[in-house]
Amino acid sequence: MVTDLLVLQSAAELFPNGVSRYAVGGLLVGLGAVVIYLGTGIPAGASTFLESTLSYVSDQSRFQQYVASRDWRVVFTVGIILGAALFAATVQSGVITTSLYEPGTTGQLYEVAGVTLWLTDVQPWRLFFGGILVGIGTRVGKGCTSGHGVCGVGSASKTSIVGVVTFILVAIGTAQLVAALGVSP
Amino acid sequence: MADRHPLFKPLILVGGLIFGFGLGFSHMARPEVVLNFLQFEDLGLVFVMFGAAIVSGIAFAVMPRIRDTAPLTGDRYERRLKPFDKNVVIGGAIFGVGWGLSGICPGAAYASLGIGNVTILWALAGMFVGAYAQGVWRSRTTDAAATAPADD
């Protein structure tokens, strides 16, 4: 009984917001990738959109290889934005309530036309400079958290597993260092 | 490419909708929640990544046994493994520094815009700058290699 209590206590510390919102959200992310794969045979990733979209405005040879896929990648990204907006208009706004969803306390909520929206407190310079490195790294490293992390790990690709282990370990070190330097949020 | 199946783009849109809804529901569209994972304050992200990988993994394993080709493209269901080289580690490490600094990755950034986080435009602008910079640099090195003498 004592060990049961300890297990429960450490679970509460490791998962202060429970696990259901993460597990349900992750299943939906996987389901979205599966729907596309079933219909098209394409294991979709989110980051190729960055380069394929640049091919509309730049004739650099590196981007031209994505001309054939650039239109559907725009559709995929628009779908992701609209899907998240649908989440905001329903679950985040409290129109649909479920015990599987833990709203949490991060960031700032605000309302537009009855829809509850959300703003980050993370400072813009972190987003911008972090974004630059994400943009370089994901393209040099052949994938991001969806291409490597979801589709690559899902197909047991050794390349993707090495990529995921690398970026998670480096990200943990970076985030801990930035926090230790007193940068927050 | 011009004569794709008429349902090709609608299906991509539906897949994107589910994918984006999931990123919102799981709070991956919130940089704070990703940073909390990286600082070991809330390990929930593990359930998102592995939950999604298991679901997609089942489809990747099962579909090639059920049918040969996808209905909307005629493409074969097959593992498309990316070749391993040192770029996977170098790029992964650069991505890791960026992800650890900002708490945001490409798919989650698109979803973050969808939940109303206009501040994430800083990260999206950064991602395009970074993708453009590596594209210009790699276009130059590849073009230079292509025009170099064959006996080099």
Description:
The complex is a heterodimer of chains A (185) and B (152). Chain A is mainly alpha-helical. Chain A contains eight helices and two strands. In chain A, strands 1-2 form a two-stranded antiparallel ribbon. In chain A, strand 1 and strand 2 (115-119) form a beta hairpin. In chain A, helix 3 (48-54) packs across helix 5 (70-92) and helix 7 runs antiparallel to helix 8. The mean pLDDT of chain A is 95. Chain B is mainly α. Chain B is built from six helices and no strands. Chain B is globular and about 45 Å long. At the A-B interface, helix 2, helix 3, helix 4, helix 5 and strand 2 of A face helix 1, helix 2, helix 3, helix 4 and helix 5 of B.
Could you write a compact summary of the structure shown?
The complex is a heterodimer of chains A (185) and B (152). By secondary structure, chain A is mainly alpha-helical. Chain A is built from eight helices and two strands, in the order αααααββααα.
